[in-house]
Specification:
The protein has 150 residues and is α+β, with helices and mostly antiparallel strands. Helices cover 30% and strands 19% of the residues.
Length: 150
């Protein structure tokens, strides 16, 4: 009797498992159909980033005067603005730590904002930001600084 019950129990388990798998497969099929419908309805078939068949070409530009890490980049009216990154972090491991910069009137590089003009292939420094390690964005054609540390 016990052997027969075990066989029936195994059969029920297999049957139940098969039903669960079939149900999951059906649900996956419905989801696939919905995803295909949504993607064909709402997503463009082809995105052409380069009109008129233009090809992407890389060009070496003037090096940025200051190396920054974690910098923000914003494009406004054809100019590229870079700032908000850390520069002194990179210099902290320099071999010559004996020099005292406390009397130096130069701007701390962490407050710099650099502007690049692709037309002139030239970098220029803007007035220093009031904070360092900030976020940047564009609002109505103006450069906006958000957050940061003093």
């Amino acid at each position: 009797i016990i052997g027969g019950l075990q066989e029936q129990l195994d059969h029920l388990r297999k049957s139940h498992t098969a039903q669960v798998i079939a149900s999951l497969q059906a649900n996956i099929g419905v989801l696939n159909e919905q995803v295909n419908h949504l993607s064909s309805t709402y997503l463009p078939k082809e995105v052409n980033l380069f009109p008129n068949g233009a090809k992407l070409k890389w060009k070496k530009c003037e090096d940025m005067p200051s190396i920054m890490i974690y910098a923000q980049t914003v494009l406004i009216r054809g100019k590229v603005y870079v700032g908000g990154g850390g520069v002194t972090i990179l210099d902290s491991d320099s071999e010559d730590d004996s020099e005292d910069d406390s009397d130096n009137d130069s701007v701390d590089d962490d407050y710099l904002i650099q502007q690049y003009s692709p037309t002139d292939d030239r970098w220029s420094a803007l007035p220093p930001a009031p904070v360092c390690l900030f976020g940047m964005g564009e609002l109505n054609g103006q450069l906006v600084i958000v957050g940061g540390e003093t």
